[in-house]
Design a protein that fits this description.
The protein is mainly α and 342 residues long. It folds into two domains: 39 residues, no CATH class; 211 residues, MetI-like fold (Orthogonal Bundle), CATH 1.10.3720.10. Helix content is 66%, strand content 2%. It contains 15 helices and two strands. The protein has a two-stranded antiparallel ribbon with strand order 1-2. Helix 4 packs across helix 14, helix 5 packs across helix 11 and helix 9 packs antiparallel against helix 10. The longest helix is centred in the first third of the chain and has 36 residues.
């Protein structure tokens, strides 16, 4: 026990040195002699708190100056630049369509008048009702709907099979399907014309729908392959474990999950079939004439019937617009699917 006071004295000396106190003023018990009274020595790690209000005043941030009118104007212009650009681009895109619509309601005598003020009339639409345009309009609607439905019925299972089944030459088959869309339409015109004349399919709705099916099928297969690849195979494997077959897993699992892509593909197929002019002009005569071909009949040698052309063009746009609006939610999802990877 004789060595304990010595150790305590050494510890006190080290504490006094750390506190910045000379060793001559500190005794062995850790006290400082300041003229009679012994005051305990403080370690350097002990920090006295700052007076109340000092710390808050030191950390307070300076008050920001009020924005000047010029700065406010720049901020407002910066916020409005993007909406203004969107409105400008939309106006440029819609200008031809709006111009066509206003021509459809103009009187025939004022069709070339540069004034924006005119008395609207429905004479152009009434004249279409008196001719054969409604029949051509119905042919276009029937052919486009039939070819779109056939393309989806055949192309969607084919895309599912190319996505899920592994077999030799799978990539080559997909490439061969795409090659059918690379050739220009005129390359297939003469073979189709000769074959249809021999089969009796010329100037028929069924023959025109088959032609549209040939180039819509490649679009369906290639687009739907992308959507089926985004569906995890684990979901279908779980369905197989629960007792589902291949077709049940396809209809209950894969097809509902790819509904947005199915809607986008259907809209594209319908638009391609609806806007076709070349095949309809070559393969039809009177019975299966479509709306785009009927519009050309208004361009006669005696003169161009601008009111009928504008009115029929306005009517031709309506089915595509209505169909797109009805499936707009799924269309946006389908067109943006695959843009961001999980």
């Amino acid at each position: 026990m004789s060595g304990a006071p010595g150790r305590f004295r050494q510890a006190a000396s080290r504490s006094a040195q750390q506190g910045g106190i000379p060793l001559s003023l500190a005794d062995g018990a850790g006290h400082v002699d300041l003229g009679g009274d012994a005051v305990p020595a403080r370690a350097s790690s002990e920090v006295r708190p700052a007076p109340r209000g000092t710390r808050r005043a030191a950390t307070a941030r300076p008050t920001a100056a009020a924005p000047t009118p010029a700065r406010r104007l720049r901020r407002w212009a910066r916020r409005q630049a993007r909406p203004a650009a969107a409105v400008l681009i939309m106006a440029i895109v819609l200008l031809p369509f709006l111009w066509l619509v206003q021509l459809a309601f103009r009187p025939a005598a004022d069709i070339f008048d540069e004034s924006w003020l005119f008395t609207p009339t429905l004479d152009g639409f009434r004249s279409l009702l008196q001719g054969n345009f409604l029949r051509s309009f119905g042919n276009s609607l029937l052919v486009s709907t039939l070819s779109t439905a056939l393309s989806l019925v055949i192309g969607v299972p084919a895309a599912y099979a190319l996505t899920r089944w592994r077999f030799k030459g799978r990539d080559r088959v997909a490439l061969w399907i795409l090659v059918t869309r690379m050739a220009p339409p005129i390359a297939f015109t003469i073979p189709f014309f000769l074959a249809y004349r021999w089969l009796g399919l010329q100037d028929t709705i069924a023959g025109l729908a088959i032609v549209y099916l040939t180039f819509n099928l490649a679009i369906v297969i290639w687009l739907m392959q992308t959507f089926f690849e985004a569906v995890p195979t684990s979901l279908e494997e779980a369905a197989y474990i629960d007792g589902c077959g291949v077709w049940q897993a396809f209809f209950r699992i894969a097809l509902p999950l790819t509904a947005p892509g199915l809607a986008a593909t259907a809209v594209l197929c319908f638009i391609f079939s609806w806007n076709d002019f070349f095949y309809a002009l070559i393969l039809t005569r009177t019975n299966a004439v479509t709306a785009p071909v009927a519009i050309v009949n208004f361009l006669q040698y005696e003169g161009w019937e601008w009111t009928k052309i504008a009115a029929s063009g306005t009517l031709v746009m309506l089915p595509v617009v209505i169909f797109t609006v009805l499936v707009r939610t799924w269309l946006v999802r389908g067109l943006t699917a695959g843009g961001v990877k999980d």
